[in-house]
Design brief:
This protein has two helices and 18 strands. It is mostly beta strands. The strands form two sheets. The chain has a 16-stranded antiparallel β-barrel with strand order 1-2-3-4-5-6-7-10-11-12-13-14-15-16-17-18. It has a two-stranded antiparallel ribbon with strand order 8-9. It comes from Terriglobus roseus.
């Protein structure tokens, strides 16, 4: 079976192996952890209308053992998603398998370690993403309308319940729709999700991305509301490419700022948000090295009713991309 698939792929397009690897450290309230991590991704076309793609996470977590001066460690390896994309027409793609939940934007677009500006995700990351961040079933997605001045895209999904260790999922449905204005380089979208097992819950979300033309400035943000909690994050970053005119090494700097707030709507906890209302400010300074490498560093101050805490995070990330084998000319 594998041999026949490999022959078919070779006759069509060459599969690509991509992803990132990194080493991170995080000091939260005086406790430091270390995390070497690799996230490989494979994309393999099967003819012109079908594509297989999957991403995994493999890491080793080193953490301080309470009451001692030593460290313990745990390892993990899991699939982030594994799906088949079937291109039905220019407006519709059918996705089947274990896929990332299309709620908001962070889960699909910014969660890979080689893309995000911060080591840690937003506090509201679990709202609308059904805990694991992935669904098991199918979704329809694509561009509903595409014009010169605007475009509208959509994604609608249904997920079945699964207790499999590698493919955990809840029974749920939902979707996302976005409006993009290319002249303004502005995207506005809304999301909805509903859990259909246990206690049924609704989730609502919205996002806004703005990247003004002819600048290196970007603004991205999301709001999410669940049955028991709600919150938002907004992030600003600036790639200092123009400083390269003064000195080439200055053009690699990328200052970043993110503001987050969460609120509890009641005392029932069914998510990973803080137990109390929380404010958090993240100040980051990233540096873009040659050959797809980046240094990520940040300081965060978290304000909460139960106490304030300082969080220091640093890391280095390398992005790789190469064909699975040499393609035919």
């Amino acid at each position: 079976m594998l041999a026949s698939c490999a022959g078919s792929l070779h006759a069509q397009e060459t599969p690509l192996i991509s992803g990132g690897m990194g080493f991170f450290s995080s000091t939260n309230g005086g406790n430091t952890t270390y995390l070497p991590l690799i996230e490989p991704l494979i994309m393999a076309p099967l003819g012109k209308r079908v594509q297989i793609e999957s991403r995994a996470a493999i890491g080793e977590d080193f953490f301080h053992t309470p009451g001692t001066q030593g460290y313990d460690h745990s390892h993990f390896a899991s699939f982030t998603y594994a799906q088949a994309d079937i291109f039905l027409n220019k407006h519709m793609t059918l996705v089947a398998g274990d896929y990332l939940i299309p709620f908001g934007t962070y889960n699909e677009r910014l969660s890979p370690l080689w893309i995000g500006n911060f080591q840690s995700g937003p506090l509201i990351g679990s709202l609308g993403n059904m805990g694991s961040g992935s669904g098991l079933g199918g979704q329809l997605r694509g561009s509903a309308v595409s014009r010169k001045k605007y475009s509208i895209d959509y994604a609608a999904y249904y997920s079945a319940r699964s207790g499999n260790e590698q493919f955990t999922a809840q029974r749920a449905f939902g979707g996302r729709s976005s409006l993009y204005l290319p002249e303004k380089r502005l995207e506005i979208g809304i999301s909805y999700g509903r859990v259909l097992q246990g206690t049924h819950e609704n989730f609502y979300g919205g996002h806004l991305w703005w990247e003004p033309a002819n600048t290196d400035f970007r603004m991205r943000g999301e709001f999410a509301r669940g049955h028991h909690a709600q919150g938002y994050w907004v992030e600003f970053d600036y790639r200092a490419r123009r400083l390269a005119q003064i000195s080439p090494w200055l053009g690699g700097f990328e200052p970043v700022f993110r503001m987050q707030q969460t609120w509890r709507r009641d005392t029932i906890v069914s998510d990973t948000l803080p137990f109390k209302n929380t404010n958090r400010a993240d100040f980051g300074l990233d540096y873009n090295l040659p050959h797809n490498a980046r240094i990520i560093s940040s300081y965060s101050r978290q304000f909460a009713y139960q106490g304030n805490v300082n969080i220091w995070q640093t890391g280095i990330v390398y992005r790789f991309l190469f064909p699975a084998w040499k393609g035919k000319k």
